[in-house]
Amino acid sequence: MLKMVGMNRTTVNSIRIRRLAFTLLVACSTIAKANDYTVVPEQFIYCTTCHGVELQGNRSVDAPRLNGMEGWYVRNQLLAFQQGWRGTHDDLIGMEMRPQATILDADGIEEAVVFVASVPSRPSPQATTSVGDSTRGKALYSTCAACHGNNAEGNKLLNAPRLAGQSDWYLHRQLEHFRDGIRGTARGDINGAQMRASIAVLPGPRAIADVVAYINSL
Ligand code: HEC
Ligand code: HEC
Fold first, then answer.
1. How far apart are CA 81 and CA 98, in angstroms?
2. pLDDT at 127 exceeding the cut of 80
3. Closest atom of ligand 2 to CA, residue 166
């Protein structure tokens, strides 16, 4: 009988200990999460010199906003720079980024993905640097929505990134690069080629500014 009670007590105690451990674990991981960004890992401080301390982007060095970017897309692009799909031939701005990606090994890429994901997404009011007609842009965007989503939220299954919240000057430049074959023409760049084919539907010189003005309003 006594033995039984003892066993029960042990069981109860072990449940208590497990609960306590679980609570501590949750508390610790919350603290770790909150602290993730207060310390930028030393190996990635250099990313912030161009992309900004909060990875908010820096137009003066052409570096786009990274905070809030989907991890799978960050990985795809770091690989695209490594492969030379971006940042070679006429892509002078991409050339600034390419060496930053080529120094990373496979583990380094995964660590960079984790680092970017650890930085809180901070949508900032978008400065309108690209002047276009968002009403016309809305009509043009209907073809884009098939891949990028109605609210430009992105679609992982189609490898199409979120566009909402990205700086308009950056979107504008990428669309010009796809149009001019600076991006999306390299052999092996299947995602880029799909995107390049899609931009062919944009009619006339004003269309890029118009569609970007609409995305900027989302
Ligand atoms: C010397 C400045 C510089 C540094 C350092 C730098 N980048 Fe970049 N990065 C750029 C520029 C400029 C672009 C835009 C290239 C373009 O317009 O095609 C870019 C583009 C990117 C993109 C593509 C974004 C998109 O929307 O397609 C990713 C992802 C990226 N950088 C991640 C990083 C990471 C991670 C680091 C650190 C490991 C880093 N960058 C360091 C300048 C830099
Ligand atoms: C068939 C699917 C598809 C359609 C339709 C499409 N896109 Fe894309 N888009 C993609 C994919 C996939 C990528 C990623 C390319 C890569 O990985 O380099 C992309 C990339 C982009 C980028 C680069 C984002 C960045 O951060 O570098 C922009 C800007 C963009 N698309 C805008 C548009 C606009 C505007 C339209 C409509 C005119 C459109 N897309 C239509 C699939 C599509």
1. 5
2. no
3. 26
